[in-house]
Design a protein that fits this description.
- There is one protein chain.
- By secondary structure, the chain is mainly α.
- The protein has 15 helices and no strands.
- The chain has a domain at 163-267: V-type ATP synthase subunit C fold (Up-down Bundle), CATH 1.20.1690.
- Helix 4 (49-75) runs antiparallel to helix 14 (273-297).
- The longest helix has 27 residues, at 49-75.
């Protein structure tokens, strides 16, 4: 699939990119006085205002499902696309093997919920990536360890598919795994976790090896800026090291950095990269819309909501 010509598909995506909501649209949404006013602004978009008025979460999920199905059809379930959709299967697998089915399953996985339940009940895992099959065949005993093992399997799967490529997708995935480890590192330190727990929850590394994380974990003042300085994300903390103590703000900056990496896909004329860029752009658009609508319903100040918004793909 890596050598496939996606010229026709890219042409379709170029048209769809013009319909993504620009940053100025979100500024207009934020200036509205109420959720009903925001809905009137949404009338200008492809999102169904009637659906948004009754259940905006369902409307956003339906839009993502439509995009996922379109891209799966356009690429014939290319492995690169699967990397980004399998995370919903991982979410559902966690519900099945960690919480005994408790929780809300996602409709966005590649395997329908009912079918996935049957696979787990019969221990028939051949429809899943081999990395995930291996974990399910020898599950750890505790719930947290099972969840961590599934996360690690997912990132190994992504590394196998995207890590062997040169260019944007490899750069994106290596950054994603390293910055996931950064968040794991900070959360576990905040909880006062042990080095053994760090080993349990970290995922396979990108540019920053696990030993480098381990060497900093028990330090009184970990030198994370030095650690990041040797990587492509050396400017992640350009707002200051205070981000390391403000996890939500750091998550926002990580999302923005990853978008900068994948935005280079817009310059690729024939590859699958623009399709994945569009997929991530739609996910980002819906995240921002969700943040605005949730904030409006909870009567948060516009400035508070704005600080939470991520950059857009345009």
């Amino acid at each position: 699939m890596a050598n496939r010509d996606y010229g026709y598909a890219v042409g379709r995506i170029r048209i769809l990119e013009t319909r993504l909501l620009p940053a100025g649209f979100f500024d207009r949404l934020l200036k509205t006085d109420s959720p009903s006013d925001a809905l009137r602004v949404m009338d200008e978009t492809a999102y169904a205002a009637e659906g948004l008025a009754t259940d905006y979460e369902r409307t956003f999920e339906d839009e993502l499902l439509r995009v996922y199905r379109f891209l799966r059809e356009l690429t014939e379930d290319a492995p690169e696309i699967q990397v980004f959709l399998r995370r919903w299967d991982i979410h559902n697998l966690k519900l099945l093997v960690v919480t005994d089915g408790q929780g809300k399953p996602s409709n966005m996985g590649m395997i329908p919920w009912a079918d996935l339940k049957q696979l787990v009940a019969t221990e028939t895992y051949t429809e899943l990536p081999p990395e995930v099959q291996a974990v399910l065949a020898a599950l750890p005993e505790t719930g947290p360890a099972r969840a961590a093992a599934l996360d690690q399997a997912y990132y190994r799967f992504g590394l196998r598919i995207l890590g062997k490529q040169r260019g944007i997708l490899r750069d994106y995935w290596l950054a994603r795994v390293d910055l996931t480890n950064l968040l794991v590192f900070l959360r576990l330190r905040k909880l006062g976790a042990s080095l053994q727990e760090l080993d349990r929850f970290m995922v396979d590394p990108g540019h920053i090896q696990l030993e480098a994380w381990r060497s900093q974990f028990e330090a009184d003042q970990p030198e994370l800026t030095i650690l990041l300085d040797r990587t492509p994300y050396r400017n992640l903390l350009r707002e200051g090291e205070g981000l390391l103590t403000e996890i939500p703000a750091l998550e926002r900056e990580i999302d923005n950095f990853l978008l900068e990496v994948i935005a280079a896909a817009k310059a690729v004329p024939l590859g699958i990269e623009p399709l994945i860029g569009y997929l991530l752009a739609k996910e980002r658009e819906i995240l921002n819309l969700r943040l605005v609508f949730t904030g409006k319903l909870n009567k948060l100040p516009a400035e508070t909501i704005k600080r939470r918004l991520r950059h857009v793909y345009l």
